[in-house]
Amino acid sequence: MLSQYESYLFDLDGTVYNGEKPIDSAISFITKLNQQGIPYGFITNNSTKTPEQVADKLRKFGLYVETNQIVTSALATALYVKKKIKKARVFIVGEEGLETAFSTFVKDETQPDAVIVGLDRHITYEKMSQAARLVKEGALFIATNPDRMLPSSNGLVCGNGAIVAAISYAAQKEPVTIGKPNKEIITMALEQLQFRKDKTILVGDNYETDIRTGIDAGMSTLHVKTGVTLDCSTYENQPTFSISSLDRWQLEEV
Amino acid sequence: MLSQYESYLFDLDGTVYNGEKPIDSAISFITKLNQQGIPYGFITNNSTKTPEQVADKLRKFGLYVETNQIVTSALATALYVKKKIKKARVFIVGEEGLETAFSTFVKDETQPDAVIVGLDRHITYEKMSQAARLVKEGALFIATNPDRMLPSSNGLVCGNGAIVAAISYAAQKEPVTIGKPNKEIITMALEQLQFRKDKTILVGDNYETDIRTGIDAGMSTLHVKTGVTLDCSTYENQPTFSISSLDRWQLEEV
């Protein structure tokens, strides 16, 4: 296949690596993009890590990555809040990735404009209650992502969506969610990376998150069978392309 | 009004007391029941306290109360699980009230028959994750109550329903819920107290929890305007009686 795309937006887990193991076809392909000067970026629902930490992981796989090529759900959320509310005062539930993304925002524990919820593996009942109370009192309720469960060395553990569900149930308010399968993360990523939506293709392994989000965002999608979804054919809306691995995707000669 | 009821089942907060303040009309009325030898019991969604602790609070208001007249949602849950599963092995998320109610059950942290969730103000991410994992793997998922938020000295805090919502979202399973507005708590209370449903009247202040639950359970209901709901007239299903306070309710001469 010949590619008419000017830029590439990659999902990470299942697309570029599986857990701690790089996916060779993706590494070779992204290296080729770099060599040919074709822009690329990465999006991840993970809100606990900073873009720097994510970039470091990719560099260990031998990829050339600048920190600003990484858009985490935490960063996308900060970009979103910046656009929606001028000088927003925020209350943060989350870890280092979210704290860093919001480091320039004013923190407010009693009357914030927005309560921002990302995965917090040290969450306490008091913090959860405070978030629920502030949301109930009218603060904008924003979730970095709706992940249900995540793999860990102890087996599956709760994703951010579980914490968000607790706050949402208590406060009887629904959040605005930025991460996949919500298209806000893509909108923010394209803006941050200065990619044109009609000239960019989203590459992902998971139909329910990556491909669905790309389709919703109105962009071209490339499904790779190196991760979660091995067969997209039963879905009503098909990805633009579906291939076994990025070995099967050819770039035009430059 | 003359009463044809043989026994009385009372809600607590808003019906017998408001927070730490006894409701005089209720105290006098229950004292009269005791003097006339008319059986009465109490139900509460609170799963953190033991029946003994709840009875102590009522005794401080001058009421005569035996511990076995108190049916907490924790106790009702234990009775429910005992009926549903023989020798159930359980994983407990909760505080002293729930631990005590399940003290005779075998605990199992890896392959329980049921995961029992009551309010746990010391909940950790690890415990929440473990509960979600066990529920996802097939353990019966049982919630003591679906309370959203509760008053506290720090303002509103999360109720058990918030913790249940987190686990439910992560595991993609709905719980069986015992406490109000679910009628299981009434079914278990009537059984424990050996009250006949058709000869018992449920007394409560909150239409959405107490009265609705009594109606669902198919029993007579007496609404008192000493707590949350001051006017029931807009509801489709009316309580059997609605009075300003228990001063307005007369017992037959014995």
Automatic annotation (TrEMBL), chains A, B:
Keyword field: Hydrolase, Magnesium, Metal-binding
Cited Pfam families: Hydrolase_6, Hydrolase_like
GO molecular function: hydrolase activity
Keyword Metal-binding belongs to the record: yes
The keyword Hydrolase appears for this protein: yes
InterPro entries linked to this entry: HAD-like_sf (IPR036412), HAD-SF_hydro_IIA (IPR006357), HAD-SF_hydro_IIA_hyp1 (IPR006354), HAD_sf (IPR023214)
Cofactor field: Mg(2+)
Record PANTHER family: 4-NITROPHENYLPHOSPHATASE-RELATED, HALOACID DEHALOGENASE-LIKE HYDROLASE DOMAIN-CONTAINING PROTEIN 2
Family: Belongs to the HAD-like hydrolase superfamily. NagD family.
The protein, known as: TIGR01457 family HAD-type hydrolase
Naturally occurring in which organism (per UniProt): Shouchella miscanthi
Lineage: Bacteria, Bacillati, Bacillota, Bacilli, Bacillales
